Amino acid sequence: MSIQTPLARVRYLGSAKEGSHHWWWQRLTSLMLVPLTLWFVASVWWLVIGGATYEALQDWLSGPIAAILMLLLIGAMFYHVKLGLQVIVEDYVHHKGAKWTFLVIITLGCLVGAVAAIYATIAVAFGG
User: Fold this and answer.
1) Which of 73, 77, 102, 122 has the smallest count of CB within 10 Å of its CB?
2) What is the pLDDT of residues 33-47, one digit of tens each?
């Protein structure tokens, strides 16, 4: 016999307390990606119409607004991809070892992709 209430007995035994945080970040990144993606597509479209040379791309990306928006797009995109793939693995992979392996691969892959894209953006923006 326990003197704990039913709520006290089940508290902290349910979810890992990460679900709502994860859900909100996925929604926030998706909301960020809508205007950033539209900006990126429109900018690339205007670059293509204007001749699309490397110098034109470098000139465009060397501006502070374009560079900052591009870095925000890269960060939001890779974090959104990581969150989405993580949900898929957590929902459909049931073997603990395989789940852990996939989650590590997804995290490292998104990290490497984001770092490479950020490096490329900075290199082009500063004339590299």
Assistant:
1) 122
2) 999 999 999 999 999
